């Protein structure tokens, strides 16, 4: 990858979280494309079993097998869906050589049993697979297989618990391979190579959850990345017009003259009807600007992710990726 400066130069694990409905999966996919654009090999991972990534790239549902989903400039994006049962089988095989036994355990619902007695174990299995992908090298002492890993993580309300590996295993194991595994995961999650990005909308509840999440991760000693403001629309009017309209003042006569000059029928009646929409738009813009001021209190870089009016597809993801690169996000 290029050595040019970027906001998160040196980060190799990009965790993407956000309140449900903010579009974190779309943003995670665009971020992966942006990271790969200069020749990088990037792995995009989902852990919630929602199969949200595959439709964005127009590919069949993801499995536990890593496979290419898109080219990006001189690089590529590969993806997988991490399943806790598959992660348990892989863990038992790697650390204990018990793949055949693991298959039997899976048939008997071993994962459900383990997570019933230690609820944090499922998260350790999921984050463990992600951490393994971050650490993996093509050969001992050789280059990493992936230049970056992007994790489409659980929502903001659960992200601290998901990443707090120490708490997850405190009642499960104090010594042994399980503890060693958890310590390796913790080392990756807390390293300078890992950053957690927050996706939000310019609305009260997503912004508040974003700020709460940032404070919670900071308290755990985790590295907070940027704030990605999704579904951004451009302001349609000049600031002076917006200020007046937000106060309920619209020059209906001027609006009618403009409509008449454009050749539209019944400009006076249309102007009166449009004036209400102008006021609504202006008040929405004011609300969004107030939300941006609140986000500024977190002292984190903010990046705009435009609303794709025509819907999200691979071409749209590439446009979002280029925008993120232009803003210095990667």
Automatic annotation (TrEMBL):
Pfam families: ArsA_ATPase (PF02374). It comes from the Bacteria. Transmembrane segments: none annotated. One of its GO terms (molecular function) is ATP binding. Residues 14-170 form the ArsA/GET3 Anion-transporting ATPase-like domain. This is ATPase.
């Amino acid at each position: 990858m290029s050595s040019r400066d970027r906001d998160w130069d040196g980060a190799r694990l990009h965790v993407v979280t956000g309140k449900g409905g903010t579009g974190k999966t779309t943003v995670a996919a665009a971020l992966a494309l942006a990271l790969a654009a200069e020749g990088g090999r990037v792995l995009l991972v989902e852990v919630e079993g929602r199969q949200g990534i595959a439709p964005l790239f127009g590919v069949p549902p993801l499995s536990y097998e890593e496979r290419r989903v898109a080219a990006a400039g001189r690089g590529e994006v590969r993806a997988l869906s991490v399943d806790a049962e598959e992660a348990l089988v892989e863990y038992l095989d790697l650390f204990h050589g018990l793949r055949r036994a693991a298959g039997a355990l899976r048939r008997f619902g071993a994962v459900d049993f383990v997570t019933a007695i230690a609820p944090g174990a499922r998260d350790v299995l999921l984050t463990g697979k992600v951490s393994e992908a971050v650490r993996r090298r093509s050969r001992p002492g050789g280059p990493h297989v992936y230049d970056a890993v992007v994790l489409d993580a659980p929502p903001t309300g659960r992200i601290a618990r998901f990443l707090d590996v120490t708490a997850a295993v405190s009642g499960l194991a104090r010594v042994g391979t399980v503890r060693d595994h958890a310590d390796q995961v913790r080392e990756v999650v807390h390293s300078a190579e890992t950053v957690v990005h927050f996706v939000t909308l310019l609305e009260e509840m997503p912004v508040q959850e974003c700020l709460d999440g940032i404070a919670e991760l900071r308290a755990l000693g985790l590295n907070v990345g940027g704030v990605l403001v999704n579904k951004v629309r451009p302001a349609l009017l000049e600031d002076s017009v917006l200020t007046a309209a937000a106060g309920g003042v619209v020059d209906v006569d001027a609006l009618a003259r403009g409509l008449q000059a454009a050749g539209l029928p019944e400009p006076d009646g249309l102007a009166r009807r449009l004036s209400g929409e102008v006021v609504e738009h202006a008040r929405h813009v004011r609300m969004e600007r107030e939300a941006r001021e609140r986000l500024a209190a977190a002292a984190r870089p903010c990046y705009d992710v435009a609303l794709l009016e025509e819907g999200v597809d691979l071409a749209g993801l590439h446009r979002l990726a280029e925008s993120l690169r232009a803003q210095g996000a990667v």
